[in-house]
């Protein structure tokens, strides 16, 4: 790590606790491949495609038939795993990788995944996307029973439970563990013999299966399959364990059968636009959201402007439905990156103008419909509206392609507290005044479901995990309800890597 990278990392860590989110921060990206001579290099490519899901750190663990090899780094995949010298340190025909965005645990190197452990049944490496809602309760019991934790990540709780299981076979140890944990999770694991993919009983967090000649792949999104030239096989089903061994794939479903409730924000925002979700590209769903929004909340205006890049598909759908012009009234500086997903506000503090600027001669004296995918705190939206007015806009009407976000998430998405969410503490008029918009409208909950499924919300068993809008949590957030905090490792500095 050079001097500048070290300096940036120190700034990020120093300001972490002061971070103020105005966009939902994604979970993590995971990737695993078996039976390929370039396993580590392909894993690095897969992680690169999943970079939008986490930018704090990245890691790869490989297995060469005798030994496991691990490399972890702070920062972006392209900053480290494009180096042949690092890839050469990861020999073997099987590998798993992880892009980190922390929802639990510090930003220290020891929390970067994949994790590795020597178990009685052999080596185990694990990469986890999501969040356990009872990790601290389990951790407390494990520590009292003599377990020693090296990290503050909830993923280590899974490792500890597998290690302590009295079952003989690894797969039985895993099942034993899965019946103890709660939350939204997708896991990719690698043992001496198997590559394993797991999805939580509700299918909240995503996981797909791909095929590349004789190799099988697990990944968070299909865009990671595309980059390595693999074909999409199917999604891992909710509550399913899929394991690959000797070029064969098998599946078991140990949980009681129930309908899936995937995270609705994968459709709205998280997934890369070209990734397939339930048979369609995420881009298509987002255009439909914009179309439904236009049906519900259209008005007279000169043209439609998206907040780039996340608001573009919805704005296109809105413009097509309302028969209005689509214009790039805001231009994004693509060399800044997705600043909201950075681990701190250190870059955002420089101002939204670092990332966006208005096309002044276009917006001058115009009435504008501004489209974005979501509204969290409202601070960024306020700055964008102000920017358009400073560019000479006559009116700015804001339209949001999802319902009001009123409740936090506990399944792997980092969000402000309930009290910090704009829609929780303000009504529509107050929110509109806060962001200085001429008017503000959100897509209705039924409009959301109509866009994504073609039918209304099933109130008795919703088709999605939509707790952001409804407060209807499919899994009780046990740790949060008890107000638990990690006690162990409290004396170990976050700067320490041991």
What can you see in these coordinates?
The longest helix is centred in the middle third of the chain and has 16 residues, at 282-297. The chain contains 17 helices and 22 strands. The chain has helices at residues 3-15, 39-49, 84-87, 135-144, 155-164, 170-178, 223-227, 264-270, 282-297, 312-322, 360-363, 379-390, 422-425, 428-435, 445-453, 467-470, 478-482; strands at residues 29-33, 57-63, 68-74, 94-100, 115-119, 122-132, 183-191, 195-199, 208-212, 215-219, 231-235, 241-245, 248-252, 276-277, 280-281, 303-306, 325-326, 330-332, 356-358, 367-372, 395-400, 439-442. With 498 residues, it is an alpha+beta fold.
Question: What would you give as the CATH superfamily of the largest domain?
Answer: Aminohydrolase, N-terminal nucleophile (Ntn) domain
How many DSSP H or I helices? 17
Number of domains: 2
Classification by helices and strands: alpha+beta
């Amino acid at each position: 790590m050079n001097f500048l990278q070290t300096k940036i990392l120190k700034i990020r860590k120093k300001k972490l606790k002061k971070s103020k989110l105005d966009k939902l921060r994604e979970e993590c990206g995971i990737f695993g491949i078996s039976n390929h001579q370039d396993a580590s290099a392909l894993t690095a490519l897969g992680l690169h495609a999943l970079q939008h899901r986490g930018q704090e750190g990245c890691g790869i663990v490989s297995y060469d038939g005798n030994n496991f090899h691990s490399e972890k780094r702070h920062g972006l995949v392209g900053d480290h795993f494009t180096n042949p010298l690092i890839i050469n340190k990861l020999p073997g025909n099987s590998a798993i990788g992880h892009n980190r965005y922390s929802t639990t645990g510090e930003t220290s190197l020891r929390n970067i995944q994949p994790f590795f452990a020597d178990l009685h049944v052999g080596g185990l490496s694990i990469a986890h996307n999501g969040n356990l809602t009872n990790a601290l309760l389990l951790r407390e019991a494990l520590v009292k029973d003599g377990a020693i934790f090296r990290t503050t990540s909830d993923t280590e709780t899974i490792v500890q439970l597998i290690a302590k299981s009295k079952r003989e076979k690894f797969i039985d140890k895993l099942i034993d563990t899965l019946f103890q944990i709660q939350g939204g999770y997708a896991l990719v694991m690698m043992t001496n013999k198997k590559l394993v993919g797991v999805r939580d009983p509700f299918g909240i967090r995503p996981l797909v299966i791909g095929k590349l000649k004789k190799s099988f792949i697990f990944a968070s999104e299909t865009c990671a399959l595309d980059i390595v030239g693999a074909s999409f096989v199917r999604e891992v089903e909710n509550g399913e364990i899929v394991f690959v061994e000797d070029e064969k794939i098998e599946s078991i479903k140990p949980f009681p059968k129930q309908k899936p409730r995937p995270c609705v924000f994968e459709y709205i925002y998280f997934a890369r636009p070209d990734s397939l979700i339930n048979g369609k590209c995420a881009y298509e769903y987002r255009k439909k959201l914009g179309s439904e929004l236009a049906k519900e909340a259209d008005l007279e205006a000169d043209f439609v402007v998206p907040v780039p890049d996340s608001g573009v598909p919805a704005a296109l759908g809105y413009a097509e439905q309302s028969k209005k012009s689509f214009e790039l009234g805001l231009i994004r500086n693509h060399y800044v990156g997705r600043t909201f997903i950075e681990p701190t506000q250190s870059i955002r503090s420089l101002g939204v103008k670092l990332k966006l600027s208005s096309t002044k001669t276009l917006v001058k004296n115009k009435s504008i419909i501004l489209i974005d995918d979501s509204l969290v705190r409202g601070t960024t939206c306020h700055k964008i509206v102000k920017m358009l007015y400073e560019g000479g806009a006559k009116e700015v009407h804001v339209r949001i392609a999802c319902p009001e976000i009123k409740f936090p998430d506990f399944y792997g998405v980092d969000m402000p507290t309930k009290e910090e969410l704009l829609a929780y503490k303000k009504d529509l008029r107050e929110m509109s005044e806060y962001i200085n918009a001429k008017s503000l409208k959100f897509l209705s909950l039924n409009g959301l479901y109509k866009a994504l499924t073609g039918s209304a919300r099933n109130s008795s068993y919703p088709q999605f995990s939509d707790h952001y809008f409804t407060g209807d949590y499919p899994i009780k957030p046990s740790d949060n309800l008890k107000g638990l905090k990690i006690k162990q490792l409290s004396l170990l500095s976050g700067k320490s890597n041991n």
